[in-house]
Amino acid sequence: MKPGWNYKKAGVDIDKAEESLERVKVWAQKTWRPEVLSGIGGFAGIVQMDRKWRNPCLVAGSDGVGTKLKVALELQKHDTVGIDLVAMCVNDVLCSGAEPLFFLDYFACGKLQKEVFEAVLSGIIKGCQEAQCALLGGETAEMPDMYPEGTYDLAGFAVGVVEEGEIVDGKDIQEGDVVLGIPSSGLHSNGFSLVRKV
Question: Per the structure, how many domains does the chain have?
């Protein structure tokens, strides 16, 4: 590396991210379940399996909020996409009958804007509280050569647990079963490429 070069000169402000993460760490700990041994701050979060599980199976799901981010950027309303991100991932885990245990996020941007970053994370924390899963950690990537300034991308990862004998996989569906329909609370995060055009 050339003398005098550092991350900040390359367009990556590690200190700004660390400042926000220190503040967010306190908020995130409010989402922790008794199984959490360590979370935000290390290279990996640690969760201990509760002894109530006899034959536990871990269920993992990963998702994003797609082009709903464009709506958030246009409206400058960023907390709701954090809630949506958790919901997208947790709903995928719930489909197997699993209880959500913990969540990890990935936030990538060109230049970190503290207010936007903290708004997104406050939404993620609210989503984790609603889903009763711990925000265990995540990744914040500031990449000025990859993303235009003022934009960001989000991804999330949820892990849940279900007893082996209680996995919901559709194999037992048969003629005569009752189908339940649950009304949607509105547009969630799928299909916004089409919604934005309508």
Answer: 1
